[in-house]
């Protein structure tokens, strides 16, 4: 196996920088978090249930994210929806999901789930060939239903604690375990190893990231608006929905189709998309 070239090393370092810096900051701040009075049993129970010792900082980050979403992310997603017909958006979503299939496969194997790994491998082979590079999800038509896995889930299966809840502008809801998972999944992604030059690889990666962000946000337009207008506390709703969704995914309950939710980008809110299987009902 050839060594990673300097351009690839540089690009990987850039892609790992955000989760690593956010993780270090979160761990440092969590040690300084204000905890409720131990004598107040109700406050302690709520504190533990929310797992959000950095709530004031997280709410500030959510406020920043909401502003970015209002000014940039949602308008871009609406333009994306207007100018790209549904068939083309579906094809893009399918290709993005197919590109991420090797990441899912590695995590299936790391979790010792050979049956799901075989399904993932079958999906990749079918969609890459018969599905013309993943443009069409032929694997589902053949009964090979998709699911999503990531290294954050793998760490959970191995017994690693999730750590405190975090909200990171643009990236969305997360926790230290999932931030580590994001970094490792970056190393697994085939585009990390593709391309003959740093410029080509970086251009491909930026394009994939932008398309994934647009696809994710476009699919959440109605859901996010419903949370904003119908929830007394959108921040708490998103936090609850994210934590419930991660439990469902870690336990492999009601796996969602890979083409629908397997793009692997947190640029939305973590709120399950309406009509997608395997999504728990958000609660405040």
From TrEMBL:
The UniProt entry, under InterPro entries, shows: MlaA
Which keywords accompany this UniProt record?
Answer: Lipoprotein, Signal
Where in the sequence is the signal peptide annotated? 1-33
One Gene Ontology cellular component term attached to this UniProt record is: membrane
Disordered: region residues: 253-284
Which PROSITE patterns does this UniProt record tie to the protein? PROKAR_LIPOPROTEIN (PS51257)
- Could you list the residue ranges that cross the membrane? none
**Which GO BP terms apply?**
intermembrane phospholipid transfer
The record's comment on protein family reads: Belongs to the MlaA family.
PANTHER family xrefs: INTERMEMBRANE PHOSPHOLIPID TRANSPORT SYSTEM LIPOPROTEIN MLAA (PTHR30035:SF3), LIPOPROTEIN VACJ-RELATED (PTHR30035)
Protein name, UniProt field: Phospholipid-binding lipoprotein MlaA
Q: Which species is listed as the source?
A: Falsiroseomonas stagni DSM 19981
């Amino acid at each position: 196996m050839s060594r990673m070239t300097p351009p690839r090393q540089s690009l990987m370092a850039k892609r790992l920088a955000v989760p690593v810096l956010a993780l270090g900051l979160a761990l440092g701040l969590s040690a300084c978090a204000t905890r409720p009075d131990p004598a107040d049993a109700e406050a302690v129970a709520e504190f533990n249930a929310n797992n959000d010792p950095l709530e004031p900082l997280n709410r500030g980050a959510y406020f920043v994210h909401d502003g970015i979403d209002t000014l940039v992310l949602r308008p871009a997603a609406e333009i994306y929806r207007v100018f790209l017909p549904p068939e083309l958006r579906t094809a893009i979503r399918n290709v993005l999901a197919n590109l991420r299939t090797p990441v899912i496969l590695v995590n299936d194997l790391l979790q010792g789930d050979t049956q799901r790994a075989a399904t993932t491998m079958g999906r990749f082979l079918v969609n890459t060939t018969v599905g013309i590079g993943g443009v069409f999800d032929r694997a589902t038509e053949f009964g090979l239903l998709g699911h999503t896995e990531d290294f954050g889930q793998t760490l959970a299966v191995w017994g690693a604690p999730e750590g405190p809840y975090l909200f990171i502008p643009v990236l969305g809801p997360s926790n230290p375990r999932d931030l580590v998972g994001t970094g490792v999944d970056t190393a697994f992604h085939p585009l990390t190893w593709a391309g003959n030059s740093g410029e080509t690889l970086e251009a491909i990666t930026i394009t994939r990231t932008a398309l994934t962000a647009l696809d994710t946000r476009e699919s959440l337009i109605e859901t996010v608006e419903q949370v904003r207008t119908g929830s007394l506390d959108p921040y708490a709703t998103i936090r609850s929905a994210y934590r419930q969704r991660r439990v469902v995914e870690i336990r492999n309950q009601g796996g969602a189709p890979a083409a629908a939710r397997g793009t692997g980008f947190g640029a939305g809110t973590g709120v399950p998309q309406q009509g997608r299987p395997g999504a728990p009902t958000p609660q405040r």
